[in-house]
Amino acid sequence: MTESDNIESLVGKKIFFLHPSVLIQKKIIEELAQEEFEVYSVKDEVKLQQLLRKYPNSIVFANISDGMKESAWEHWIQSIMKDSKTARVGIGIIAYGEDANLRQKYIGRLKLRCGYTIIKTDLSAVINQLTNILGDMNAKDRRRYIRVLPDKDTNITLNLPMNGTFINGVIREISTAGFSCTFEDEPDLIRNTHYTGIQICLQTESFQIQGMYFGSRKQGTKIVYVFLVDQDTAPDAQAKIREFIRLHLKSRMDSELGAAATPSAALTTSA
Question: How far is CA 168 from the centre of its chain?
Fold first, then answer.
């Protein structure tokens, strides 16, 4: 197992929807994100191809009903499969209508590993199909929750109630399951102690959660404290954490896509 495989087992796979429709973005992608999949929407197939070389274990669902002509879609997909740096990428098809010939081409001849999904009126069935595919592809691996390590300039803090006052801290890592943080002055915390009214500030969003102090570790000259978020925490607070994580990851990925090199000769032909 390579070092990148070890890292992936902890963070899971990145999932890209290429040329998704508004319906796919608003309903399917958002629902998969709620299920703790790391999902992105991309509308530039050339830059995505460059980015997949950096993330060769990713999964791509290509909406062949939009974005490019059919011949261009086939060419793009084959170029991914034939490139040694992206050959491990899992590719699936999204389409808005059944076409036996196309299904045979992509599943029968090209043997794409991530299926052929038809967008139907019953979106719950579509989401269930995609969820099953992602499960078969081990998209989460050992990771149950998406977590982020905020950038140094990101304002993400907490106030921990203690002895009738609050102690100020900086969040170093966060997921909907918990967070790690450091404090200006090292507090005397007891493991497994529950706290209510923990004030969290995620840039412009402020809210309260309940959590349990789980333990600490030494990191450089600082002590990092780990808290688990109680399941009794209000759903809207957890939704705010999940939305912060989604937007933070999206911003990072948008920057990576923007920095991706665009070949002088385009790999595909737009419709």
Answer: 29
